[in-house]
Amino acid sequence: MKELSGRARLSLLLSAALLAGCLGKSEQDLIVSGKQLSGKGDLNAALIEFKNALQQNPNSAEARFLLGKALFDKGDYGTAIIELRKAQQLKYSPTELVPLLARASLEVIAPARLIEEFSSQVLDTVAANADLRTSVARAHSRAGDLDKAKTLLQTVLKDSPQFSPALLAKARLESAADPSASLVIIDQVLAREPKNIEAWLLQADIKLFSQRDVAGATQAYQHVLSLQQDHVLARSALYSIAQLNKDQKAAQQQLDQLKKSHPTHPQTRFLQAQQAYQGGDLKTAKEILLQLMSRGGETGRILQLAGTIEAQNGSLLQAETYLSKSLQQAPDLLDARRLLAQVQLRTGQAQKALTTLKPGLQEGSTDAAMLSLAAQAHLQNGDPKASEALFKQAARLDPKDSKVRTALALNRLAKGESAQAIDELSNIASADERDTSADIALVSAHMARRQVDAALRAIDALEKKIPDKPLPEEMRGRIHLLRNDTNAARKSFETALARDPKYFPAAAALASLDLQARQPQAALKRYETLLAADPDNMRATLAVAELRAQTGAPKEQVSQLLEKAIKQAPAEPGPRLLLIAHQLASQDIKTALATAQAANTAVPNHPEILDALGRAQLEGGDYNQAINTFNKLALLQPKQARPLVRLADAQIVAKQMDNAIHSLKKAVEISPDLLIAQKNLIALLRQTKKFPAALEQARAYQGRHPKDPLGFSYEGDIQFDLKRWDAAASAYREGLKRNGPELLATRLHASLMRAQKRAEADQFVHTWLNDHPKDRQMRTYLGDVAALGGDFAGAESRYREALALDRKDSLALNNLAYAMLRQGKPGAAKVAEEAASLSPNSPAVLDTWATALAAEKELPKALEKARKAHELAPDTPLFQLTLAKILIQNGDKTQARTHLEKLRSLGDIFSNEQEVLQLLKQL
Predict the structure, then answer these.
(1) pTM of the prediction?
(2) What would you report as the CA-atom Rg of the chain, rounded to the nearest whole angstrom?
(3) N or C: at which end does the chain have fewer Cβ atoms within 10 angstroms?
C-alpha cells in the first residue's frame, strides 16, 4: 500500500479529531445523557440522544426502550408503540416494557384488542402488575364494562393502595357520578407528586367536562404546559377551549404552536382536519383523516370526525362504519353515538339505532337529543306509544327545542291526529325564523294528504327562510308532479338547479322526466352537466353508468364509469359493489375477484363487500377461500343468519356437508323465520339422508307456524323420501287445508298412487279439478304420470287440457310433441317447433324437435337440432344417443360410431346401455 504524505496524514488526523469531537460520545454516554435530559423535561433533546445511540447500535434494547418511553412522554403514542415493539423483539425486560406498552396502546388501539393482549400477562413485580392491570381496567372502562374495571382497580389498590395511576383511573371512572370526590383523589395524588402530569390533565378534564369550570380547566392545562411546554394533549385541550369560547385567534395560536413543535403528530393533524371541517373544507379534512387512519391512527375521535364528514357527504354506509368503529374505541363519545343513531335511522335501521342509543339512555337520562332519536326509532319501528313517551320526556328537558316539538307533532300525525299535528307544525314553523325542520315536515304532511294548495303555501313560507336554496323549488316540482303537470315540474326543477348546479335531487328528477319521455340522451346530458359543475359527484357518475348500461353501452365503458365513481369516493362501498356485480353478471369472474379483493383492502371488514368477495371466490371455484371469507362475515355479524347461509352454500360446493348442516342449524337458531335457511337445511338433511333430523326441523317449523302450509310440505317430502306414503299423504293434506300451493296437490296424488290407493287418488283428482278448474300444474303432472305409465293417449289429453289454459307453456308443448311421437301421430314436429320458439336454448326441447323431424324424414334439419342439443348439454348421454340415431338414419355411420363408442364407455351408468350396444352391432 502506498504510504500517505505528511500533509495527507495531517488531514486525516484532523478529520478524525473533528469526528471525535462531533461523535465522541459512546452508546452508553448517549443513553445516560438522554436519561438526564428526559428527567429535566427536555424530551426533544433526549430523543436526539437516544436516536444517536441507536445509530451506533441499532440492536440496543435499552436505547430502543428509552426512545419509546420519551415518545410516550411527548404524547406520540403511535410511534412509541412501534419503538417499544422493537425493544420487545430485542428481549428488553418485560417488567419495564409491558406496562408502558399497555399505557401507549390504551391511547391508540381498540380496548378489546388491549384486553385480549394484556389481561392474562403476569409480571415479576407488584408495581409492574399494578401498572399493567390499571391499563387493562381503563380498557374495560372504555369498552363500557364499568363493573369489570372497578373490580380490577379494587384488586390493584388492595395490593398497592398508593399507586397513583390506579387512583387516577378510579377518579376518572367515578368522575361522571361524583366529580367532586374524584377531584379529592386527584388532590391527594398531587400532594405527593406535584409534577404528575396525568393527574393535572385529569383534573383539567373533570373541571371542563363534568363541572363546566372552563377557567379552572384552562389553569390546569396551562400548568401542564409549565411542566412540559410541548405537551400535545394539554395544548390540544387549550385549542378546543378557545374554539368553545369562539376565540379564533387564541385557537390559531395554540394550533400554530403544535404545528411548530409537533408538525406530524396525529393530534396536530387531527386538529388541522377539525379546523378544515369547521371551515367547510370537507375535502382537505377527509384527506388528512384518511392519512391518519392509513397509518394506524384510528382513534375514537378521528373515526368520529371521519364519520361526520361521510354523513354530511351522503355516504351513509361509510359513515356508519366509521362511527361504529369510533364507539368500539371510545364508547363514551356521545356525539358519535347520536350521529350513528341518526345515520341508522336515515338508512331505515331503527332497531340498530335503538341498540346504539341504549348505553346513553339509562334511567333518568337528561340527554334530550338522545331521547328524541330513540323516539324517532320507536316511531320508525311502528311503536308510536313508546315514541310519544320519549318525545314528551325530551320536550320537558328542552321545551324550546323546535326539533323535539316538530317530532312530537309528527308523532301525532302518525297516530292519525292530522289536524292537531298540522296546526302544531304551522305554529312551530312560523315561530322559529331560522329552523326549517317544521316547515319541511309541514310540506311533507300536506303532500302526503294531497293538500296541494296548503303544501305550496308552506313552501312559500319555507322559501322566505332559505331564499337562495334549491330545496323549496325542488319541493314545488314534486307537488307539480302530484298534479301531473310535468311542464311546471320541469320549470321548478330547472330553477332549483339554476340556484345550485350541483344539486343532485333536481338533476335526478329532471333525468327521470327525460326517461319517461323516452329521451335517454337528454337524461344523460343532465348528469353530465352536473358532473361538469361537480366533477367528484359520485352519485351522478353512478347514474351515468346505470344509463349507459341500460342503453346498451359496451360493458367496458360501464366498468370505466364505475371505476371513476370508486376514485371519487374510495371509502364508499356502493360503487365497488356495483362494479363487482357488473363484472359477475358479465361472467368476468377473474376481474370481479380482483375488484372484490381491492374493495376489501380499501374498505376492510365491510359486510356487503365481504359478501361480494365470497361470491366472487365461489364463482371462481376457490371454495376454501370463499369459506374463509364467509366465516369472517359470520364472525363480523354474529347475530345475522344470512352470512351463515352463504357459508353453507360454499361448504356444500366444497362437499363439507356436516359443516354446512352445522352452519344452517346455527342460521335457523339465529333467525327461525328466515325461509332460505330453513329450506336449505331440510333439503341438505334429506340429501345426506339424515331424515330424523330433517323431520325434527319440519315439525319445529310447524310448531312456530301452525297455520303455515310450508312446514307440512317439508314433512310430506321427508316422509315421501322414507317411502312412508300414508304419512306423506297426511302431511300434504294438512298443508292443503292451510291453503298450500297447488304443488302439494300433485304430491298428495303421488303419495296415494305409491300407497296403491288408486281409487282414492282418482277421486281426489276429480274433486280437485272440479274445485280448481284453472290448475294447469295438476293437468301437466297427470300427463307426465300417464306418459310414464305408457298411456300416451291419456298423456296427450292431459297436456292439451293444460295448454288450453296457457299455450305458452313450452314444457307442456314439448311433452305433448313427445306423446304424439310415441303414438306415431303426425304434427309432432310442428308442436315441438312451437315449444322451441318459446325456449330456443332448451336442450330437451331441441332433442324432441330433432326426433320429431327425423320421424317426418326431415333429416338435415333434424341433425341441425340434434347437434345443437348435444352442444348445449354435452354431458347428457340421452341427447348424444338421439344424435347418433339420426346420423345412422342419415347414413353417416362413421360419426354415429364415434358417438356410440363414447356412450358405450359409460357402461351401466347410462340406463340405455343395451340400446347403445345393439346399435353398434348393427353398424
Answers:
(1) 0.59
(2) 38
(3) N
The C-alpha angle 824, 828, 833, rounded to 5 degrees, equals 160
Read off the amino acid at residue 257.
Q
Residue-by-residue DSSP string for 805-865: H-TT-HHHHHHHHHHHHHHT-TTHHHHHHHHHHHSTT-HHHHHHHHHHHHHTT-HHHHHHH
Evaluate whether 267 touches 107 at the Cβ level (below 8 Å).
Answer: no
* Cell output for 263: 408538525
Superfamily name and number for 178-263: Tetratricopeptide repeat domain (1.25.40.10)
Cα 874 from Cα 601, distance rounded (Å):
41
Grid coordinates of 699: 315439525
CA distance 615 to 590: 12
Question: Can you tell me the distance from the alpha carbon of 499 to that of 572, in angstroms, rounded to the nearest whole number?
Answer: 28
CB 336 within 8 A of CB 323: yes
Query: Which residue ranges make up each domain of the chain?
Result: 178-263
Residue keyed to cell 375477484: 593
pLDDT profile of the chain (923 residues), mean per 10: 34 33 67 87 85 90 93 84 93 94 86 88 91 92 84 90 90 83 91 91 86 88 88 87 85 88 85 87 88 78 90 80 84 86 79 85 70 76 71 70 68 66 73 73 77 85 86 88 90 91 88 92 92 86 90 90 88 88 91 94 87 94 94 88 94 95 95 92 95 95 92 95 96 93 93 95 95 94 94 96 94 95 95 95 94 94 95 92 94 92 90 91 87
Integer Cα distance of 251 and 81 in angstroms: 29
Number of H helices, E strands in the chain: 54, 0
Q: Are 506 and 493 in contact (CB under 8 A)?
A: yes
End-to-end CA distance of the chain: 97
In 3-state terms, what secondary structure has residue 143?
coil
DSSP 466: S
**Residue 362, helix vs strand vs coil:** coil
Please give the C-alpha separations between residue 259 and each of 271, 386, 794, in angstroms, as whole numbers.
Answer: 10, 50, 92
**Dist CA 118 CA 102 (whole Å):** 7
